[in-house]
Amino acid sequence: MKSTSINISRFFIKTYALIQIVFALILTFGGAYLLYLGGSIYYLFTGILLLISGIYIFRIKLSGTKIFAVIFVYTLIWTMWEAGTRFWGWIPRLATIAIFAFFLTLLLPYFEHGIRKKIAYSFTGLIVICFFTAGALAWYPYFTTLDNSQIPQNTTNTYHSVSAQPDDDWRYYGRDTQGTRFSPSNQITPENINQLKQVWVTRTGDMPPIDKKNKWAAQTTPIKVNDALYLCTATNNMLKLDARTGKK
Length: 248
Prior knowledge:
The protein is mostly helical. The chain has helices at residues 2-36, 42-58, 62-83, 87-107, 117-137, 155-158, and strands at 223-225, 228-232, 238-242. A 3-stranded antiparallel sheet has the order 1-2-3, with no helix packed on it. α1 runs antiparallel to α2 (42-58), α1 (2-36) packs antiparallel against α4 (87-107) and α4 runs antiparallel to α5 (117-137). The longest helix is centred in the N-terminal third of the chain and has 35 residues, at 2-36. It is elongated, with a radius of gyration of 33 Å. The N and C termini lie far apart (93 Å).
């Protein structure tokens, strides 16, 4: 019974080791290419150490786990140095190593001269706590600036467009580069809107053929620059109209 338990433990250790070796080879070759391009030496160096660690772990040698511990510690230091307090900068640098560390701590008691289960699983618990903490921090908003000032009540007088243009122009799809869709023009008001009269109407006369598949109707937001209106027809042709008369 004890022999069967040992064989099962060895199977899981060797399976883990093979996965780490494959990952190490990918990291080594990728790191070498990155270094050739002028990137960080970390990935090549770590790939080589992970490969050595994986070979020792495959042989059920505790020294392989010690090498991995060194990798984990300097990866943590490197992450702190390079990412600082940027939470999302920690994820790509530390997450994969932390996942390997989690499974390796579960296997620690089954190595030759292995660590006692209480000590090994305390490391496992510490990593789990770190994972839960990281998951909670992922919901915290980063790099945000809250404006707690009061919203002005009179938007007509306080509005300032980020795109300099006359009040009666509409030079962008959303009126300005921030897409506010707000016009400061005050010619039309709630008091005089019922007096509006139609001055002109135009038809593009440019529609897709009746038998054409996947056709669409014209849904246009005209762009107004000075006295010219620019619009797109249903077949993607551009038209320029006189804003005062509607003539093409």
